[in-house]
Design brief:
The complex is a heterotrimer. Chain A is an all-alpha fold. Helix content of chain A is about 70%, strand content about 0%. Chain A has one domain (about 5-120, about 145-290): ABC transporter involved in vitamin B12 uptake, BtuC (Orthogonal Bundle), CATH 1.10.3470. Chain A has helices spanning about 10-35, 40-60, 65-85, 90-110, 135-140, 145-165, 165-175, 175-180, 185-215, 225-235, 240-260, 270-290. In chain A, helix 2 (about 40-60) packs parallel to helix 4. By secondary structure, chain B is mainly alpha-helical. Helices cover about 70% and strands about 5% of the residues of chain B. Chain B has helices at about 10-35, 40-50, 50-55, 60-85, 95-110, 120-145, 150-170, 205-225, 225-235, 235-245, 245-270, 285-295, 300-325, 330-345, 345-350; strands at about 1-5, 195-200, 205, 350-355. Chain C is an alpha/beta fold. Chain C has helices at about 45-50, 75-80, 95-105, 110-125, 140-150, 170-185, 195-205, 225-235, 295-300, 325-330, 350-355, 370-385, 400-415, 430-445, 460-465, 485-495; strands at about 5-15, 20-30, 35, 60-65, 65-70, 80-85, 160, 190-195, 205-210, 215-220, 250-260, 270-280, 280-285, 310-315, 315, 330-335, 365, 370, 420-425, 450-455, 465-470, 475, 480. In chain C, strand 4 (about 60-65) and strand 5 (about 65-70) form a beta hairpin. In chain C, helix 3 crosses helix 5, helix 11 crosses helix 12 and helix 13 packs parallel to helix 14. The chains are: A mainly alpha, B mainly alpha, C alpha/beta. At the A-B interface, helix 3, helix 4, helix 10 and helix 12 of A face helix 7, helix 12 and helix 14 of B.
Chain lengths: ~300, ~350, ~500
């Protein structure tokens, strides 16, 4: 094994890239869950975002448009989940699974003609001055815009939930929809907005996979990233800052195992390739053994205004 | 204004009617989708739902396929339905299916080339045990630590897929396969093959197992106290604890049963229709079975019918691919839509729809 | 009248199958304390929900200070100075006091200012509160303060209070009344919902009585007797349960040094609980909600295992056995929450019979349920306890609260328990059903069973218990005979005033 082939600066840089899709999706899902809704369709929304983003970027030549289309498409798809669970009061777990199955089917249908194509990717922002710092510059300051947007989004979500009245109302709805309703807040409307936001974030995450990280379209390319995003929300105890940590840790594991594979480590390939999933399970076990804290009290419970 | 008003108890009429309505809606929306893809919608629907059974030319081939495709779906969905009834969400049946296939095939290949009538039953047992053991991982973690079974069982699908890739290239690879990945073909090893029991019907041992599972589960759920406890746990977990039902036992029971059936289904598939362990012998039955379970209203007989219908869409989908060049993925989407419409129309089961303001009674 | 604040004219609201309010009219004057009196299901909640903008009336109109008043949502009501203190469902456990208060305000000030205001107002009205405490960690009385303060911080003309004293000790009730009188003196009108007659006589200037959705009368409670009010409210008068001879036998249940940690973040730990109950005796356990009632029931029913040696039934240690084994041994129970705990809402009454009676009534043999036997058991409960239901196949959730409660209590009583533990046996049940349930419990005791009644209704406990104890923060007070206890003593047993103080009347 040749560990010297692993360059630490490049490693950190690629961790950031590898973590970004999951970070975006997990952040969106965290907001959804904060509002008391469990949307298990993250995987389906991500892959829809991936294919729509890719197709749009290929046909328009603009990755920016690709990202926008991806966010919109996944958000609209997530509204179907919102309609079913919030208005027609279907079971959230089943509907989330359904959303994933629909998303997987839809994406492979849309994506067929785009297999093997190349798309324009996001340019690296070489931030002046910062980008020129030796090692650190390449590590942290020469990424594409989405990496920074995702980090800003973490900050924005954190501030929104902690400091704004709208954030307080969102948390209140997730905590007790009956109490929020009694005070006159529009529970269903607030939840639909959260679901929409979660869908958009998952779409961006998916598009980042197909436009930047890979960058190509292959069927089923999210391979569980959406589910891992769900796990990260639990790991993060529903806090934006910890979602960031979780996503970057996970990105680290993924990159490390790829690097080890490339470096020809003596660990069998299959162990390496299943390691992200095993580690996710391990983390879930540790978190639940300690006791899950911070879960919104109304999470996953259906709301029906009886009066 | 349209309002929803909770029914005091779920409507029996709508419980039966919603799957039909969902199928109908899926046909309509699916037809529109086919039209968008530039395919004749009515013809596509006919090819998917009618031709596999009655087409003068193809029916002879596709009719037996119905049982072949339906049996794993029914077996897995029956197992899942128990958990879903109890509010335990095993969505990793695909992984349990793969592990059952690996364990069962491994058992058979270990005896190659000896012959004994005991080999096949031993394989079935090993397959069921393999699936059971794989399902015990989320079960034990949930009981011991309260870990979310949805995420764990799903993560284990990816782990199982990695294992499958490994064994088909290494451990179980056919030594006479000239280096190609994949195990020996069970069709060439009669003692371990899951053969057709009645030639030309598609009736293999997995079909028998599926029917047995349907009857067993029906009796369990309607007559036995454990079935009652499972339903009670799903309907009102606190009431179940008050009654004296141990949640841990229900978790172990439901996940274990689901895992064993999925594992057995994997073995029947790999030793029969698929013939051998390959990297991608699994075709997503574990996920489609979730749709089958819901479409069948988590009721054994409903699942039997839903499994046959879903098998029909598989066969019809292949036929439509052949005859109209309909993309294979559109069937996957079609199946997903079916679940979505079912969940949507379920609103009629639990609620009355009122239009306008209420009149004074 | 010149000083009419809110006037209701012909308010009518119907739900499918029931007219909740039928042509209700009355006036509330500025600064008065006006009682809204009625049984469960008389339409009090619907009426105040219309005033608070949560429900739209089908017919009728309201006016506030002479101007038409039709709030489309609670926000609109609050903007006009109408606010409400709920009995349930209006606080957020995981949020702080200040956040909870802010959520109930239209334009909350900045966090720092709000915290200061909360401190000021809470001290001025004798309801001290720390604005940064998490609400889930507060006692029931403190939680109510949060709601009251939420209303006090805003422009207030009318304060609606829904059964506010059900979560307070007698001492706390006195303090609350002082606060309300102070508010009334300052010109705030109070609409006070209750079914407790003595309370209304002590506090309110006027009372409007509802029965089956209709207004029966508006009167001056101080000029009526509790009996008159009660007959107006119920329609007929009910005989108090027949008194019985005190004949107690051997100790059937003994609890010693029962301590259990809290089941979850907002639960109550049990601390060194000890008592005995004898055959033929009714032990009443009072206390403000959330002081360990649910936890005690769970420890007695077997849902949570207790430390070895702490629960002894007829001389046998049953602490480490589950609910089924305890039932086999003769210890039965009925939890407070009917839907989802004592009964499964979506399942039929037949199935809900199997829920606890499977073994004692021989409804299961060899693991198989005999549905015929289960049905005849359910029919027996329905018949003997006068449960009004279309059929035994009706879902439990489709029954009214009173009928389901009769079924739940009947299900346990018909299994001939040696010891029966019930929590809030008549909560949310109309007077007729409540009287029937109490009588059934007394009859069971007369047959030699030991009965533990956990309740927040002190009148009920005084009526049916032989001895009384109170739960306070998971501790049980000394048990004392009911005869000779007065409200003052009971209040102290329940923990006194819990840090409240009388409002400083300016």
């Amino acid at each position: 094994m040749d560990l010297s082939s692993i360059n630490p600066a490049l490693l950190i840089a690629s961790i950031m890239i590898s973590a970004t899709p999951i970070l975006l999706a997990a952040l969106g899902e965290m907001v959804v869950e904060k509002a008391g809704v469990l949307n298990l369709g993250v995987e389906g929304m991500m892959i829809t975002g991936a294919v729509v983003g890719f197709a749009t970027a290929v046909s328009t030549g603009s990755p920016t448009l690709g990202f926008m289309a991806a966010a919109l498409a996944s958000a609209v798809l997530s509204l179907s989940f919102g309609l079913l669970t919030q208005v027609m009061l279907s079971n959230q777990v089943a509907t989330g699974l359904g959303l994933t199955l629909v998303g997987l089917g839809l994406s492979s249908l849309i994506g067929k003609p785009y297999e093997g194509m190349k798309s324009p990717t996001l340019p690296k922002l070489d931030i002046p001055l910062l980008g020129d710092i030796p090692v650190l510059g390449r590590m942290l300051f020469s990424h594409d815009a989405m990496v920074y947007i995702s980090l800003l989004l973490v900050l924005a979500v954190w501030a929104f939930l902690k400091y704004t009245r709208a954030g307080l109302i969102l948390r209140a709805v997730g905590e007790s929809h009956d109490a929020a309703h009694a005070l006159g807040y529009k529970v269903v409307r607030i939840r639909l907005m959260a679901i929409f936001f979660g869908g958009a974030c998952a779409g961006l995450g998916g598009a980042y996979l197909s436009l930047v990280r890979v960058p190509q379209w292959t069927e089923g390319m999210t391979s569980g990233a959406g589910w891992i995003a769900l796990a990260i929300v639990v790991f993060a105890s529903w806090r934006a800052g910890r979602v960031l940590i979780g996503a970057y840790l996970f990105g680290g594991v993924t990159v490390l195992q790829l690097n080890l594979q490339a470096a020809g480590a003596r660990v069998p390939v299959e162990i390496l390739s299943m390691s992200p999933y095993l580690i996710t399970i391990l983390v879930l076990v540790i978190i639940s053994a300690r006791g899950v804290h911070g879960a919104p009290a109304s999470l996953g419970r259906p709301f029906h205004a009886s009066s | 204004m349209i309002r929803l008003e909770r029914r005091p108890q779920p409507s029996r009429l709508w419980t039966g009617l919603t799957p039909l309505l969902a199928v109908l809606l899926t046909m309509v929306v699916g037809g529109m989708m086919f039209a968008l893809l530039g395919k004749p919608p009515l013809e596509a629907i006919r090819i998917i739902f009618w031709d596999p059974l009655f087409h003068p030319q193809f029916a002879a081939y596709s009719r037996p396929q119905l049982l072949v495709k339906a049996s794993p779906l029914i077996l897995i969905a029956i197992g899942l339905s128990l958990g879903f009834r109890a509010g335990i969400w095993n969505i990793g049946a695909e992984g349990q299916y793969i592990m059952g296939a690996i364990c069962g095939a491994g058992m058979g290949l270990a005896f190659y080339p000896t012959t004994s009538p005991l080999i096949f039953p031993a394989m079935v047992l090993a397959g069921a045990l393999g699936g059971w053991a794989w399902a015990m991982i989320p079960a034990v973690l949930k009981v011991r630590f309260g870990t979310n079974e949805i995420l764990v069982s799903l993560m284990l699908v990816y782990v199982a897929e990695a294992l499958l890739a490994s064994v088909s290239q290494k451990l179980l690879r056919n030594p006479e396969g000239m280096g190609f990945p994949g195990s020996r073909n069970f069709q060439q090893y009669p003692a371990a093959a899951n053969t057709e029991i009645i030639v030309g019907t598609g009736m293999h041992w997995g079909v028998v197992a599926a029917f047995v599972a349907v009857i067993f589960t029906h009796v369990l759920m309607t007559r036995h106290i454990q079935g009652f406890n499972i339903r009670l746990t799903g309907e009102a977990p606190r009431a179940a604890r008050f009654s004296g039902v141990s949640p841990a036992r229900i978790i172990i029971l439901c996940l274990g049963f689901g895992g064993a059936l999925a594992g057995a289904a994997g073995l029947f598939e790999v030793s029969g229709p698929a013939g051998q362990i390959t990297i991608d012998f699994n075709s997503g039955y574990g996920f489609t079975a979730i749709i089958v379970a819901f479409l069948g209203r988590l009721h054994p007989v409903g699942i039997l019918l839903a499994g046959l219908l879903m098998a029909l869409t598989y066969i019809g989908g292949e036929l439509a691919q052949l005859m109209l060049g309909l993309p294979g993925a559109s069937i996957q989407l079609f199946q997903g839509m079916l679940l979505f419409f079912l969940l949507a129309t379920d609103v009629f089961t639990n609620f009355r729809i009122r239009v306008g303001t209420t009149k004074v009674a | 009248m010149a000083d009419t604040l809110l006037s209701l004219r012909g308010l009518t609201k119907a739900y499918p199958g029931v007219v909740a309010n039928d042509d209700v009219s009355f006036d509330i004057r500025a600064g008065e304390i006006h009682a809204l009196l009625g049984e469960n299901g008389a339409g009090k909640s619907t009426l105040v929900k219309m005033i608070y903008g949560l429900v739209k009336p089908d017919r009728g109109e309201m006016s506030l200070l002479g101007a038409p008043y039709a709030p489309s949502e609670p926000k609109a009501a609050r903007a006009l100075g109408v606010s409400m203190v709920f009995q349930h469902f209006s606080l957020f456990n995981a949020l702080s006091v200040a956040e909870n208060v802010a959520l109930g305000m239209e334009k909350p000030p900045r966090v720092g200012d709000l915290a200061r205001q909360i401190r000021e107002v809470s001290e001025m009205y004798g309801l001290p509160l720390d604005p940064f405490r998490i609400v889930g960690t507060l006692s029931a009385g403190e939680r109510q303060r949060v709601e009251i303060i939420r209303c006090l911080l805003q422009d207030r003309r009318l304060l609606i209070m829904d059964e506010p004293t059900s979560v307070l000790t007698p001492q706390e009730v006195e303090i609350l009344f002082a606060t309300l009188r102070k508010l009334s003196a300052e010109g705030t009108a109070i609409l006070y919902i209750s079914h407790k007659l003595e309370e209304i006589r002590a506090l309110c200037d006027h009372a409007t009585i509802l029965r089956l959705g209709k207004k029966v009368a508006t009167c001056t409670p101080a000029e009526s007797t509790a009996r008159q009010l009660g007959e107006l409210m119920v329609g007929t008068s009910f005989a108090a349960p027949a008194s019985r001879a005190q004949a107690t036998g051997a100790v059937l249940l003994e609890v010693t040094a029962l301590s259990l940690p809290a089941p979850d973040a907002f639960g109550t730990p049990l601390r060194e609980i000890a008592f005995q109950v004898k055959a033929g005796e009714v032990l009443g356990l009072g206390g403000v909600a959330g002081n360990g009632q649910d936890e005690l029931l769970a420890a007695l029913s077997g849902e949570r295992l207790a430390p070895a040696g702490s629960v002894t039934l007829k001389g046998r240690d049953v602490s480490r056995t589950g609910p089924m084994a305890r039932r086999d041994a003769g210890l039965l129970s009925a939890p407070e929450e009917r839907l989802g705990h004592a009964a499964a809402p979506a399942m039929s009454l037949v199935e809900n019979g199997v829920l606890t009676a499977a073994r004692r009534e021989g409804l299961v043999s060899g693991g198989f349920v005999s549905w015929a036997k289960a049905r005849s058991f359910a029919e027996r409960v329905i018949r003997e306890f006068d449960v009004r239901t279309p059929s035994p196949d009706t879902a439990a959730g489709a029954l009214s609260g009173g009928n389901l409660q009769k079924f739940v209590i009947g299900r346990e009583i018909l299994q001939r328990p040696d010891v029966l533990v019930v929590n809030q046996p008549t909560w949310g049940v109309d007077a007729a059903a409540a009287a029937a349930i109490r009588q059934a419990l007394l009859d069971l005791a007369a047959k030699g069973a030991a009965i533990i009644v956990i309740s927040q209704d002190l009148d009920e406990l005084m009526e049916i218990s032989d001895r009384f104890g109170a739960l306070n923060e998971g501790r049980l007070s000394r048990i004392r005979p009911v005869s000779g206890l007065d409200m003052e003593q009971i209040g102290l047993m329940m923990g006194g005033a819990h840090g409240m103080e009388v409002a400083q009347v300016a």
